[in-house]
Amino acid sequence: MRTSSTFSILFWIYSTRAKNDQTDIYVRITVNGKRVNISLKKKIDINSWDMKSQRVKGNGKTAREINHYINEIRSTLFQCYRDLKLENKVLSSQLIKARFLGEDKEIHSLQDIIDYHNETMVGKLCSKTMCHYKTSQKYVLAYLAKKHKSSDIYLQDLDYAFVLGFENFLRSYQPRHYQGKIGNNAVMKHIQRLRKMVTLAYHMEWIDRDPFVKFKPVLEKKEREFLTDNELKSIEDISTSIERLSVVKDLFLFSCYTGISYGDIMNLSNDSIM
């Protein structure tokens, strides 16, 4: 999984937190505008710091040692960046920091939980429900491609803004098989399925927080109308040479007159009517 990214390293001091003119040196890692700071546990006099060159002024022993250490840190961070890129990781400032500190554990992505869900739920969910999940997953990946210019995202990078962005994307998205845009309740269903997958990841400790905590689904209450006798008669009178459509018509009429749902009809067997 390769994505283009911007990467920069900045060494700086916290002059406002100086005590007796002594303060710590920090390094800031920035990837695609998101940054993290790491304290280098080195103290210097604030007047000896050259902000432009990001180094300690002078050629004294202390200055040389600290500047050499800064060069080593910079080189190590660049190596972490290159290694993660070669591993096809979705780069982030947090991930580079974790690799630098030796704290990086396996970090899971959205595609990881999609794959895990589909593998583990295929025997638990009916084929129709799995089909709905795969449709929702397709929309999530389409959203990533359009809005984030990526094929994947780390679960730890999911936040409330991502959820709202996905909702807005769905409301304006028009699938090829639709006559119009996706309706409100269908949008909520797709978000609900994404939420269930992310909650699964949360329970497995693949993610530290639930990005859906602040999201409140809004469903539109709709009253279903009954078909009139004339409408049922019109359906009964439909004639088709396509066997598949004829079977669909018969199943629909059978459901209307018996009140048995489509799902229950499909589970009927000879034993059910004996």
Task: Provide the descriptors you would attach to this structure in a database record.
single chain, 274 residues, alpha+beta, 3 domains, two-stranded antiparallel sheet, 9 helices, 5 strands, elongated
Describe the fold and architecture.
The protein is of the alpha+beta class and 274 residues long. The protein has three domains: 7-101, no CATH class; 110-203; 229-273, no CATH class. Helices cover 48% and strands 12% of the residues. It is built from nine helices and five strands. The chain has a three-stranded antiparallel sheet with strand order 1-2-3. It has a two-stranded antiparallel sheet with strand order 4-5. Strand 1 and strand 2 form a beta hairpin. Helix 4 (127-148) packs across helix 6. The longest helix is centred in the N-terminal third of the chain and has 26 residues, at 61-86. It is elongated, with a radius of gyration of 29 Å. The two termini are 56 Å apart.
Short description:
The protein is of the alpha+beta class and about 270 residues long.
Strand and helix order: EEEEEHHHHHHHHH
Give the total of beta strands.
5
β-sheet strand percentage: 5-15%
The backbone outline, from C-alpha atoms, is elongated
Number of domains as seen in the coordinates: 3
**Low-confidence runs:** none
End-to-end separation in angstroms reads 56 Å
How helical, in percent, are the residues?
40-55%
Q: So how many helices?
A: 9
Average pLDDT taken over every residue: 88
Decide which structural class fits the backbone: alpha+beta
Major sheet details: 3 strands, antiparallel
Strand order of the largest sheet: 1-2-3
Could you tell me the radius of gyration in angstroms? Answer: 29 Å
